[in-house]
Amino acid sequence: MSCNQEYSRAAENLTVSENFKNPIGFYNANPTFSWKLPVSEQTKSQSAYQIVVASSKELLPNNADLWDSKKQKSKQSTFVKYQGKVLESRQKVFWQVRYWNQDKNASDWSEINSFELGLLNNSDWKAKWAGLVTAKDSIKGVRNFLMHHPQYLRKGFELSTDVASARLYITAKGVFDVHLNGKDVSDDVMPPGWTPYNHRIETMTYDVTELLETGKNALAVELASGWHSGRISRGKALYENFASPKILCQLELVMKDGSKQYILSDETWKGTTNGPIRLASIYDGEVYDANFEISNWNIATFDDSSWELVESEAISKDVRLAPKRHHSVKNKITIDDVELVSVNKNSAIFNLKQNIVGVPKVKVPMKKGDTLKIRFSEMLLSDGTFYTKNYRSAKSTDYYIAAKNGVVEYVPKFTFHGFQFLELCGYDKNAKPDVSWVQGIAQHSNFEKNGTFTSSHEKLNQLQSNITWGLRDNFFDIPTDCPQRDERLGWTGDAQVIAPTALFNYDTHAFWTAWLQSLRENQSEHNNGLVPFIVPDVLQNKNGGSGWGDACVMVPWDIYNITGDVTILEESYESAKKWVGYYQSKVRNKPYIPIMHSFGDWLQPYPSKSLKKANRGDTPKELINTAYFAHSAHLISKIAGVLGKTDDEKKFMDLYKAVANAFENEFFDENGKFKQDRQTQTSYLLGIYFDLFKPETKLKAQNHLLEEIKNADYHLGTGFLGTPLLPKVLDDMGEIELMYKILFKETYPSWFYSINQGATTMWERWNSFSKQDGYNPQSMNSLNHYAYGAIGQWMYERIAGIASLEPGYKKIRIAPLPNTEFLTSASASVKTPYGKAGSSWKIENSTFNLDVVIPPNTTAEIQIPYGTQDNLIVNASTFKETSNLKLISSDNDSIKILAEPGTYNFQTKL
Ligand code: RAM
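That's the alpha-L-rhamnosidase sequence above. Prediction below.
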């Protein structure tokens, strides 16, 4: 019986599509289903499953009216496609699953989960865009860009019967904060976030049933420019030329008597710009004047007769309204361990000890009528000077004007800053500045932590911290390049290099797939397949860039390998092919060598070129174009293979081989040497990692690469494109000691150099700042830029030792590569689609100790880097093959084992 009980343990952790748990306002009427098997001795794997889907809970499991998958003999427990009846907007759908284990015993049915669809079609919207025409009295801000006064909008309404359920569907051309009867509807930050608004605007869905009252109610919205009508979108012809922000809002009520009511945004709404937020800009900050506060404006009893009527506008067919397909930004971490750095006559400087993105929360004594000015900075100069030059034209300053004497509390709402230090001035001169005056609120898209990495080395741990802070700081609804200066754009190249590391550390599956949809929408504007440098594409440049545009192929491929979700390959396939077509269209005189724009190996250290061109490094763009052309064609061939498109698989394989051949002939001599006086590490890295050389040339090129690294005194010499490839290439070459040597270098250029200079995030340049000389004087210089954090993938995969060997960790590789010079232990865990996997090693008394966790429904190849089969101890006994552990191979210095799910401890002598 006890056995049977184990067998009956139900599946857990049910999710739909990209890891959504019981979502409402869900975007996908064709979802996929995923579940995890419980961790138990009896459940090693799944031999079959059954999913049942119904329109009400009561129909489950036996009368599933929407879909019954029936028993499917399959090991698949992730991303199983829904194949039932067509689902509609607003529909609430219930589902559960059971599985059969390896012994063909059925589990119990899982708990019932649900999802509720949002408004999927523009025709679902009865509301109109509504708002005041603020363009007419807006002021000219930095570089003459219009600044709209934020709007306060409201609508009172009366309900005669009780509400059974209510959903608020809402979005904005701009950003908003919505209240119902004076209460916050959500804690989302700056919804609806940023998409190419000329193609698609995401809509939010909130369950507001509990906030409504019988009798009088009021819906109230604060609305500001955000990305849509702010200078970050750069005007141009986009987004209706800085049109006044507007809201679109549809409150749908189902009453207890079954009747329906709608409260819609339209010309009957009232509005004012005479509220306390006087101005708000992403780059430039917020101005809040407490003298303009309007008490009770967002509750039902407020008299809005003196407010203006808004203008309305029908929704257009051309811009899709679609439920948000990833999680919005939230306040995630409060930093209150603050240091008071200095107090001058009129100002005080505070240090959060961590470079964050978000807003300050200040509690400061003030005198009526005075203005508190809050400035931000990433790092002070050694003499304590408050430095803001690297924000360039972004004013990044908040102002608060006090309406009375006493302590004021203020958190800006419609802006965000990138900062570690903040300066206050304008507070009550009689008060003594105190650390309690300031907190930092770190904000980012609301994804969960997915992995952990730690080791015995303090600086390596600081690097992990810098990587993960740099990631979160730049995942503000879209993946941005930097979060602080007058840029904050979705650079495709940066995204391409960081995606794998991001997926290890955070559950960014939905975050990436949402952004990739924006990428495809912007690509569709260019018939030749061009993928813009930035997405959303507010620059509207007519050039595509190698290594940047390839994000449309490389990021989907990474997502697929790490999650096992084939959907992203299907969604991206045509886009990827078009991008390779763009390369083809750029081939001029020499076959397979595209002549086109590239940012090159961006920010390579020690460039030989003069300052203006130095950022692009020394690897010629033609070489980079050709390398990425080949690589993207190669990946498309692999993707075609996964999708069963055999013709394309061959066609793109042939193309890749032809381009690779041209690459070798054009740029390398018969000795595998890069044909340019100024040698670069990246030219070799691209050729080797993208597999562009004939085998004999590859060996020669590898030696030239080693030579180059030696010439650099064992420092890296790579920019944005080369850096992620360096550990992979050296690893394949077996040059592990060398990789450790480079990684643990303390001098410029290296990862630890920035740590030695006080970095708490990754930097844009290897030498963005030094304690001695302060900021690198070049104007483009961010202290929060994730590209060089791409080393994070190798830290998980090889220092700690966890990698996905078959898509989505169906097969796991545990293969740590310890280094005894620098480390005595390292450990990582990852929430795989099947459950938690772990690899943790330490070396003590000449014994190598490895703890491994392998989740159900997977297998693992475990490679123990020391010892032999004879001296291997497993879970405290001498190693013997069992049904759980099979020997694959054993030689003098490593043992390879195939493991079934479970928890294992391995010990062996060094
Ligand atoms: C700057 C940033 C960004 C990079 C582009 C090419 O804007 O460094 O990260 O991708 O240049």
